[in-house]
Amino acid sequence: IIVALLCKCCSFLPVDLVLMNFSAFIFSLSTVVVYVFVKKKLGKASAFVTSLTFALTPAYFLHTISGYFDTDAIIAFFSAVIILSQIESFIVDNKREQLLFCVLSFISLIAFSFAWEAYYTYGLLSVFLTIVLTVLCKAKKLKRDYIIPFTFSIFTVVFCLLTSANAAVGSLGRTIEKMLHGTVWPDEGKYILELAKPKFLSGGINYSFDIIKTGLVNWSGGFLFFVIFVCALVSSIAYLVKNKYIRYMHDDEKKAYLFIAAIVAWLLVTIPFVFFGIRFVQYISLPMSLLIGIYVNSLFKRNEKKKVGAIGFIILYFICQNIFLLELAKIHQKEI
Question: What number is the average pLDDT over the span 220-236?
């Protein structure tokens, strides 16, 4: 609703001014959304690291510089609101808050449907995460109220089926026709960089920060980012496996456990999207950033010496990442 009102207000402004700054503004708003949700669960330090890591993701960062207008910033904003609201609706205890977050997620999905044709992937993802959390709670004998999240999950599935069925059938038909009869159009993956099938690391270690290369590591944020992410993923999975009896945990610890489980499930189920084209690394950018924020939270909970070292490393990382991205943005802006 806020974004819609802002768009209405922007219609009175000069077109060139709006186009030059709209993407940057919406994406900045996305990082605020991420900060607010993470802060509630893991504290200020994790929220700051998560939102800043998300903001510095090259796949988004280069599409928000002045003069470059695309749907990426809008996708970042709505995906964050839809998924994080749905997760929050399952975790909170108060039914009024559950209803509030479910309504927020559903309204955001409706608004998102006017901005991007593949919006339904995030709607169905929110339903999948609700099911995962329900199964987890049943397995761990943890009592939660599932009625409101599940009701809105049904609404989400019905809405996605009613509004995207024609597009999905048409896309499937074109795919089958292409497989049977071929096509006169050139291969998109060969001539469009963003739709190229990704390698793990393109160009070797010397090019690990070069987004012109179509490697997963390159587009995620570089080799240093990827190493930290792998540490975060291993740490999160180890935490989930180690803490088997969550029903004996403190209430805040239970909520944190469910939050981490949802983020890991989110990451694992969206990884296949990346293989459709390198631009779809955006599907995993936010869960990757969230896991890094969770990892930072675990480091801060340890002794003071490790905390100081962790803070120093984080500051150094962000300085290096900012220098790299600013130089990369200058090069990219000259090209467009």
Answer: 84
Q: List the one residue out of 263, 223, 282 whose CA is nearest residue 57.
A: 282
Residue with tokens 């071929």: 182
pLDDT at residue 336 in the model: 46
How many Cβ atoms are within 10 Å of 155's Cβ, its own excluded? 16
Are 137 and 110 in contact by the 8 Å Cβ rule? The answer is: no
Radius of gyration of the chain (CA): 20
**Residue 192: partners with Cβ closer than 8 Å, 6 or more residues away:** none
Half-sphere exposure of 157 (CA within 13 A, CB side): 10
| DSSP structural state of residue 184 | S
For residue 114, the SS3 value is coil
Do 237 and 260 form a contact (C-beta atoms < 8 A)?
no
CB neighbour list of residue 203: distance below 8 Å, 6 or more residues apart:
210, 213, 215, 218
* HSE-CB for 102 with a 13 A CA cutoff: 23
**Which amino acid makes up residue 51?**
S
In this structure, what token pair is assigned to residue 299? 């480091």
Contacts of residues 150-155 at CB distance under 8 Å and 24 or more positions apart, as own/partner, are 151/102, 152/86, 152/89, 152/102, 152/103, 152/105, 152/106, 153/126, 153/127, 155/106
pTM above 0.85, yes or no: no
* 54 contacts 66 by C-beta, under 8 angstroms: no
Instruction: For residue 158, give both structure tokens.
Output: 């019905």
Q: For the chain, what is the mean pLDDT?
A: 77
186 contacts: CB under 8 Å, gap ≥ 6: none
**Positive or negative CA dihedral for 44, 50, 54, 57?**
positive
Rounded to whole angstroms, the Cα distance separating 169 from 71 reads 23
The 10s digit of each residue's pLDDT in 32-90 is 999 999 988 888 878 888 888 888 777 777 666 555 556 788 888 999 999 999 999 98
Is residue 296 very low, low, confident or very high in pLDDT (cuts 50, 70, 90)?
confident
**What pLDDT score was predicted for residue 268?**
92
Model confidence at 335, pLDDT cuts 50, 70, 90, reads very low
